Amino acid sequence: MRLQGKVAVITGAGSGMGESTARLFAKEGATVVATDINEQGVKNVVESIRAQGGEAIAVKHDVTSRASWEDVFAEVGATCGKLDILVNNAGIALAKPFLEQTEEDWARTYRINIDGVMLGTQYAIPLMTENGGGSIVNISSISALTGMAGAGAYTASKGAVRSLTKAAAVDYGKQNIRVNSVHPGYIVTPMSAPHMEHPDYKQHFLNQIALPNLGQADEVAAAVLFLASDEANHISGIELPVDGGVTAK
C-alpha cells in the first residue's frame, strides 16, 4: 500500500473529489482525517470507509475559521499523534459574470478557496516538521492556468492557490515538506453533474477537452495520491493538470 502508516487530513471530504480522495487514501493504507462543513456528509463517507476496513475519522470543519482548524489539529494530535499529508481540497465556485460579482461574493470565495489553504498550511507545517517532513497537496483549477469565463473571483482565488503553493514549497523545502498543486479541469462531481451532463451543455464541455470523455473525481484523486506518496519524493512546487488536455490547446 502506498500510504501505509501515513496520517492524512483531507478537507471537503464529504463529497466529490474530496470524498474520492479520502476513499482512495484509506484504501492505500492511510489513516484519514476527513473534514467538511457538511457534518452528516463527511460522517457518511467515514462510516463507509470503516465498513470497508479502512481507518478514518470525521470532523466538522469550517476552513475559514482558525478556531475550527485548531479543533481539527487537536483531533489529529490526540488521535494520531502526527501528520504526514494535508490535502486542501475544500472550495466553492460562484457562476456569476465578473461585472456582477459583489464584494461579498469576492470575500466569501477568497475566505474558502485561499484563506482556508493558508490556515491549513500554517497548522500543518509545524506538525510535519516535527515528523521529519510531509506532503501538502492544494487543489487549484485549470482556471489558474488558462483563465475561465464567467468566474472571475473563482479564477483569481485559484490563481492565488497556485502561487501560495510555490511560495510554501520554496520556504519549507529544507524541512522536507513538499507542496504541490493539482489543477482539475472539467470533472463530473455531484455539484457539477447537473450542468456538465445536461443534454444542452455536455457537448460544450466536451469541446473544451482533447480526450473523448469528461473527467471523473477518482481520476483527480489518483493524481493527488501520487503527489502525496513517497513516489513523488523529489517533486515540489509543481502544478499538475488533470484536465483531459484542456491546457494543451
Automatic annotation (TrEMBL):
Pfam families: adh_short_C2. GO terms for molecular function: oxidoreductase activity. Keywords: Oxidoreductase. The keyword Cell membrane does not apply. InterPro entries: NAD(P)-bd_dom_sf (IPR036291), Sc_DH/Rdtase_CS (IPR020904), SDR_fam (IPR002347). Its EC number is 1.1.1.-. Transmembrane segments: none annotated. NCBIfam families: PRK07231.1. Belongs to the short-chain dehydrogenases/reductases (SDR) family. This is SDR family NAD(P)-dependent oxidoreductase. It comes from Exiguobacterium aestuarii. The lineage of its organism: Bacteria, Bacillati, Bacillota, Bacilli, Bacillales.
